[in-house]
Amino acid sequence: MDKTNQFHSFWGITLIVLVCLFGGMLFWSLWHIPEYSEGLSAMVTKHMPDSGVKSEVTAILLNFRGYDTLLEVAVLFAALLGAYQISPMHLDKSMVQSNPIMLYLIQYLVPIIILVSGYILWLGGHAAGGAFQAGAVLAGAGVLLLIVRPDSLNLKHSVYLNFILIIGPLIFTLFAFLPILTGGTILEYPRQLVGIMILLIEAASTLSIGFTLMLLFAGGRPPSGDN
Amino acid sequence: MMNIFEILFDLLLAFVILWLAVRTVYIHNLFESIMSFIGFGLFMSIAWLRLGSIDLALAEAALGSGISGALLLMAKKKLSDCAVENKSYKESSNG
Amino acid sequence: MNLPFFYACFGILIFLIGLIGLTLQPHILKKLISLNIMGSGIFLVFVALAKRAGLSADPIPHAMVLTGLVVSVSATALGIILAIRVKQLYGKAELPEDGR
Fold this sequence. Notes:
By secondary structure, chain A is mostly helical. Chain A is about 70% helix and about 0% strand.
């Protein structure tokens, strides 16, 4: 036992020394960063009238750097596919917390949460908000329903569930690759339709993100729709 | 440039976030660790507000603290009472 | 030291705390939590360095960190499902203590 203690403390000391060295290197490199740098904010402000929305972060996410957001929606979808492969949905009777207080409360909470999610989605066009925040709030409503009253959702492998899960990446990919048909590059939205296209992409992504996070919380593939 | 109240607020916020992070990593009880992580996410949301980005504050409060906390609590419950299905793996790993 | 560099140093500290937690804790769920803390530290450094221009913060790192936050939550979810599967197959979700 004494040998394993010495063994452990040797690796413990080594870990502390290595972390201190690494931290020192990081702090030293932070020391050499210039104190004032405007970054790309001037370029963003210059191109804001072309972007179709009034919020800078939404314009960057869906227009200027739309490729990153397209891949991010694909990453969420890939995580869901991985979860489908590994295990079936494990929300059984032991995890359901349906006491009368919660059953009464979700009748009021869930519609309000869905309304708040839609409001945050609409707000993303001209203030802070957008698809990801709205999708996360929608996923909160889904998680609440899954815990308190799962038979109201009745999740099973159906074409409607698959459609809701795929609608976000599908619409985003469609609108991203559509300009190729008219001779432009990808993600080059037509100038007069930018605002409405961004709103449609965000709405579809909100639905998809909400249901994807809810299914990731449930833990895997829903049961098959035969029974 | 920065008055004394801003400096005090930043120092207090930094101290609370550091304390919650150390507590999350160091405590051996899993439940307290997850609770500290949820609190860490909420104070991180205030830090994003202090650094001037409202979208990040919204996203961190909803995703980093809400959804992530719910996921971890569900995982803790599932890990403590899921049945081990394959006994032969368990025996061969002990030998 | 003005505001951005204070938050950047603080973000590096959070990253180091998460790194120590990742290596020292044997339980898989604790490792996932430490990974999330490391991610939050990195995002703090990124957004703090975006505020160097004063009051008009550079919005591009905000969008990138938003993307990173969503990706990190989905990776945590997948890691949790894998950890539950490991517990179902092997009987415990901790790494063995004697360093095998």
